[in-house]
Design goal:
By secondary structure, the chain is an alpha+beta fold. It contains 3 helices and 8 strands; from the N terminus they run H-E-H-E-H-E-E-E-E-E-E.
């Protein structure tokens, strides 16, 4: 994303009335396994909601949508086995799905935005498990078979 597009996208996301099935906000919590599960959930949920992408944004308060910044630095974070986070996540997603990691300043505060493409033809799994969002909660897709027709 170019600078103008990413700032516009973040403004759109923080203006949503609440988190959606394809948009999640975090402050600093960034456990690699959970990030992978959220990428699966956002990709699958975006497909079900006819959205081209799902988003996970760090540095935004969930309830207020206030942009407060984050300490999360994805390019300094490791996945399992001390592998860099980005290639580890890409390797663990199946089928492979494109995602982008954007790090930028918004109103002078550090923000991280993951943009993941919507699932195409079949659900996306992370580490062998498919995830979905039900409201603003991440759940195993197997528990919601009516939503597995991606």
């Amino acid at each position: 994303m170019n600078d103008d597009r990413i700032l516009t996208k973040l403004s759109e996301l923080v203006s949503l009335p609440a988190e959606t099935e394809w948009c999640e906000f975090k402050l600093n919590f960034a456990e690699p396994q959970q990030i992978g599960e959220y990428l699966s959930a956002m990709s699958n949920s975006a497909a079900l909601q006819s959205e081209p992408h799902g988003y996970i944004g760090w540095g935004i308060e969930d309830g207020t949508r206030a942009v407060v910044g984050t300490r999360f630095k994805p390019r300094q974070t490791k996945g399992a086995g001390n592998e860099d986070l980005e290639p580890w996540l890409a390797r663990m997603l199946s089928p492979r799905v494109d995602f982008k990691i954007q790090e930028f300043l918004f109103e002078g505060k550090p923000i991280v935005l993951f943009e993941v493409q919507a699932a195409n033809n079949s659900p996306v799994a992370f580490s062998g498990r498919e995830w979905i969002r039900v409201g603003s909660h991440k759940k195993p897709l197997k528990d919601y078979p009516e939503r597995s027709a991606i």
